[in-house]
Design goal:
This protein has helices at 8-16, 19-27, 46-59, 79-88, 99-111, 150-160, 184-190, 198-207, 219-235, 237-242, 247-265; strands at 69-73, 91-96, 118-122, 135-141, 161-170, 173-174, 210-217, 269-270, 272-278. By secondary structure, it is α/β, with parallel strands linked by helices. It has a seven-stranded mixed β-sheet, sandwiched between helices. The longest helix is centred in the C-terminal third of the chain and has 19 residues, at 247-265. It is globular and about 50 Å long. The two termini are 28 Å apart.
């Protein structure tokens, strides 16, 4: 499904550390949570729906509690980590490639009084800075698509999980029977050759000794989320320009979000909560 692209992570790091991207994601895309939301309706604020995704994913983790060690790969501003630490008392290690996002994560975590429960590390999910078998849960939200070598990411997840540990994640994907080339406008935007697919993750994780616990298909929420973010971006256009975001960035983002909406409308895209357990 994916051929290794050694530049993909570097491209993502450069992008998320840019002033335009940082201001856009923090202002429009939910702030502390910059992933796809689970919406009650078309009017719900992006941030509220995104937080509901945290709550929903966490509710599926079996046996989570104060002794649980969680690794969040692609943690961004750390909203999920703070929710997990505050709600369940567990310790969360955030691994993320953006220095800007990591600095904001540390600041927000300190303000929340959770610095003793959350560790923020700069690093790539293709080379996770952690010892073998050191986590009970690996968590990721809408980040793995940025990898040019998703097989390596799966191998790293397997390496750092304890026997019997759980891997739970979401990722914007294509369906396994998606026609070739139809997603090129999306792929061009994220500088990759492919997206993952449900079948790809099933195959690779099974080969690594994982048992599938479930896949909650919510592709309708992917479509709604990109539509809602595009709507809020258009409403906040002038506000973003005032805080220094370039018009070119905003215009390109509006076009890019429309490509995701179109891909979902045509039945090419997949998204949902994927849950696996490593063999004991």
């Amino acid at each position: 499904m994916t051929s290794p692209d050694t530049n993909a992570v570097a491209k993502a790091e450069e992008y998320y550390d840019s002033d335009d991207a940082d201001k856009f994601y923090f202002t429009i895309w939910g702030g502390k949570d910059i992933h796809i939301g689970l919406y009650k309706d078309d009017e719900e604020p992006v941030g509220d729906a995104s937080h509901r995704t945290d709550e929903t994913i966490a509710s599926k983790i079996q046996g989570i509690g104060p002794d649980t060690k969680v690794l969040d790969i692609g943690a961004a501003y750390g909203g999920a980590a703070r929710y997990l630490a505050e709600t369940y008392g567990c310790h969360v290690t955030c691994v993320n490639i953006s220095d800007k996002q990591n600095a904001i994560n540390r600041e927000m975590t300190e303000k929340a009084g959770l610095s003793d429960k959350i560790t923020v590390k700069h690093g790539s999910f293709e080379d996770i800075p952690a010892e073998d078998g050191s986590f009970d849960v690996v968590w990721s939200q809408d980040s793995i698509l940025h990898s040019g070598n998703r097989v390596k990411v799966m191998e790293e997840v397997a390496r750092v999980l304890k026997p019997g540990g759980q891997f739970i994640f979401t990722d914007p994907m294509q369906w396994d029977d998606c026609p070739a080339d139809v997603l090129q406008p999306i792929l061009d935007r994220i500088h990759l050759a492919t997206l993952g697919s449900p079948g790809f993750y099933d195959k690779e994780l099974k080969a690594l000794g994982f048992e599938k616990l479930g896949f909650d298909d919510h592709v309708d929420q992917l479509r709604r989320h990109y539509w809602r973010v595009r709507q809020e971006l258009q409403k906040g256009y002038d506000k973003l320009v005032e805080v220094g975001v370039s018009r070119d960035y905003i215009d390109n983002m509006i076009k890019g979000l429309e490509h995701w909406v179109n891909g979902a409308d045509k039945g090419y895209l997949a998204w949902g909560i994927m849950h696996y357990r490593k063999a004991k």
